[in-house]
Fold Phosphate transporter.
Amino acid sequence: MEDIYLVMLVALLALAITDLVVGVSNDAINFLNSAIGSKAISMRTILIVASVGVAVGAIFSSGLMEVARKGIFMPGEFYFEEIMIIFMAVMITDVLLLDFFNSLGLPTSTTVSIVFELLGAAVCMAVIKIYKENGGDLALLGDYINTAKATEIIIGILLAVVIAFLIGAFVQYISRLIFSFQFEKKIKYVGAIFGGVSLTAILYFIVIKGLKSVPYITEGTMEYVNTHTLTIVLIGFVIFTAISQFLMSVLKINILKTIIIIGTFALALAFAGNDLVNFIGVPIAAWQSFDLWQSAHAATGVLPSEFAMTGLSGSVPTPEILLVVAGAIMVITLWFSTKARSVVDTGINLSRQGDGVERFEPNWLSRGIVRYSVLFGSAMSTILPASMKRRIDNKFDKPNANLKNRRIDAPAFDMVRASVNLVVASVLISIGTNMKLPLSTTYVTFMVAMGTSLADRAWDRESAVYRVAGVLNVVGGWFVTAIVAFTAAAVFGAIIYFGGPIALAVLIILAIVLVVRSGILHSRKAREEKTKKKFKKSDIITINEITSETSENISNVIGGINKMYSKTVDQLGYYDLSKLKKNYKKIEKLESEVDELKDNIFYFIKSLDEDSVEASKFYILTLDYLQDMVQSIGFITRNSYNHVHNNHKNLKFNQIRDLKKVDDKMQILFDEITETFDNHEFGNINNLLSEKQELMDYVSDLIQKQIERIRTSESSPKNTKLYFGILLETKDLIGSTMNLLQLFQEFYNEARSTNY
């Protein structure tokens, strides 16, 4: 009988390790985005500091493990067998849910997921017990669930969203009024005080309040600290202010960088201390449950279905070795997880200062919020005296950014905002941790970052509607997390209860397969994104760089169109709906690549040196031709898919044959174009242009042949519409391609003749 539970413990251990990996990947946004976004320190330094913070926080996190044992449900109301089912359902759900959000690159809450998973699985088992033992009286459900504690946790999580946003916005607004965006000048006078306040806040909430979690601190020490807290804080403020002034005046160290380093450490420590329960609390509780039952079974022979888990209600210490191992896994994940970088990118993108490629599309709610916020802001500005409004506006005036020196790796925001993000978030999380409330660190850090970006006027009229839509998407995802976590854990719990070991084995295998598959797909996507970086450059300066960049874009787009056209013709001939559907989806990717190029036109023009400004028109026209080409292949692909999807008759054999001949000729031409631009053999463009008329004439002949078919034998208007559409768009595609080649040749010859 013990064997099945030993297998479950091994499975829980494996799921715990997986959960640590996927959980840290998601929660990396909590302590990495401010340091990475400000680029105050190198990535290597960020990871080293965060790793130390995570390791220290993991060791001191044992107090919160009680949440997994008795924070959500009443363990004494469940038998050992039922407790193990609850824990298995929770861990399987958690791994799958977090991995799904990681794959999307969206930050979700590991705290919310674990709380609602425990709630869902416990409610499922409670309902089953009630129907078996009490005739289905659901009014007894409150006897099984720790409603008071669960409600306290849920309300605390929801309040944290609002509080973190408001406090982040308030502190950042005051900080910006003090420093302005010209903080290099003001830092000399108020930097020491700012450093003293920031470091003292971290000292108070993380060191002083966190002492009670350290097992080596005596009661006498804690009593002294609690009695003299104000004195310790004041002394700490004086000492840290003096240290800050010394670092600035004598060692010439930027105090903001120091705060960012210490803040990253503090936030990583707070994260590990607060969130480790989300990853290993359940497996540890399962192991402790097994240990309790095994001891009782050895003494009395009690069965798993008869042993009540009242022992979990007490205080059960967590072995230090488990915390050390968990901390090591978290640190390794930080260094090697690509999904962690994806989630961090989302937070940085939504809080960055200035324009750029927006990830989220606006919706009716984001438009409404921005519209009424603008009206409210206009009304408020009329109330303030003109002199005060001018003084405030001067504080928020950004320095004239030299966009000619703007590189793709420019910081997303400055070090003042990064410091506020780190200090405020670490303080709020530490308060929750020391109150034994598993606050969502994702909610807190994300909403602090959003609040500070709003207060910093990063959401201007150009970007607000996109940023608000992004925040709504992320927050909406949090509510989805709660609903899905509750439902999935309840369903999995029922499956395991009624399906037994076979159902459990199937669910574990399913979880492993889905996580591995997700990892493979994400790696493939990461490789694609790496190559896609070519389309995101905003740091072109000289004519040579323009030529190289443009030829690279032309080669990539034409190569993509070449493959898409050939596949569409082949799949249309085979009447293959599934493959046409894949092409239908891929065309959006090709369109987005060209759209991103056009999004960067502003920065491209600003970044040109004075001798290259005339190249702006060439670059704009190039993108216009590329967009025309993509629109043509998009029309061909979508119409072919819709034709087959609507179950219309396939094209006739002679039509497919003629299209295949066109495809063969275009393959030869486009391969030559791609090779020309890949190898920068631009002298070959004349030969390519000479082939234009021959191909155009061939397509025109096919159009004439189809007209004759209609007059004599053609009987399908849908086939005719599709066939004519493909030929006409093919003609437009060839024309746009040749116009592009001609434009490039003229620009290249002029650039050579003027020695740009």
Q: What stands out?
A: Residues 401-408, 533-541 have pLDDT under 50 and may be disordered. The chain is about 80% helix and 0% strand. Residues 27 and 586 are 31 Å apart (CA to CA). The chain has two domains: 1-396+419-529, 575-754.
